[in-house]
Amino acid sequence: QVQLVESGGGLVQPGGSLRLSCLTSGFTFSSRYMTWYRQAPGKEREWVAGVFAFGGNTQYAEAVKGRFTISRDDAKNTVYLQMNSLKPEDTAVYYCRTVVSTQTYWGQGTQVTVSS
Predict the structure, then answer these.
(1) Within 10 Å of residue 82's Cβ, how many Cβ atoms?
(2) What is the mean pLDDT of each run of 10 residues along the chain (116 residues)?
């Protein structure tokens, strides 16, 4: 079955960096568009970044453009989110997501807290 497992979250000071990982299994990772979302307390889940298969073109939400980098390693079935220059408003639970055969799959999420 399809599984997505995020890791790498934690507590970081403003201006700091974290790298999130999403290890996947149960589907052909190399052919899927992979995305990161986040959900802050009291807010709706929002799209953060996406990386296409077959070339790895990337897309970013305006709020993270220039600070976050999404990448993929098809040999490891893993998608990453490198987050630099973190701000308190980046505090959220971060989820990876994909769609396989019209069904949407989410990981369990990893908490990122940006605070001094």
Answers:
(1) 14
(2) 97 98 97 97 97 93 98 97 98 98 96 97
